[in-house]
Specification:
- The protein is built from four helices and no strands.
- Helix 2 crosses helix 3 and helix 2 crosses helix 4.
- The longest helix has 24 residues.
- The chain is elongated, with a radius of gyration of 18 Å.
- About 10% of the residues have low confidence.
Length: about 100
């Protein structure tokens, strides 16, 4: 009985660590997102999935605007995001929204 509890705890720790690694992989590289820097994108109606998509795109849009304002080329911005593990379809959608 105690052995099963210990194994359960170990499995839970491994799961949490793997989720934390995955979250870090998709972190926006090299800058902090400040809410006052960029207005939030508009969603299409009250559609739940449209809102989820906007939530996924928001950090990318902020990143793109921030580095464009610093004179960084779009190609370099895209390469940095893809290198950090962002999905290419999300990156492309974010560039279309900016």
């Amino acid at each position: 009985m105690i052995g099963a509890v210990i194994i359960g705890i170990i499995l839970a720790i491994i799961l949490v660590q793997s989720l934390m690694k995955k979250k870090k992989k998709n972190a926006v590289p090299a800058f902090e997102v400040k809410s006052a820097e960029v207005t939030e994108p508009k969603t299409e109606g009250n559609d739940f999935f449209a809102q989820m998509r906007q939530d996924e795109l928001r950090p990318l849009i902020i990143f793109i605007k921030k580095f464009r304002s610093k004179g960084v080329d779009d190609k370099e911005i895209k390469q940095a995001l893809l290198k950090k593990g962002w999905d290419s379809a999300l990156v492309n959608d974010a560039f279309k929204k900016v």
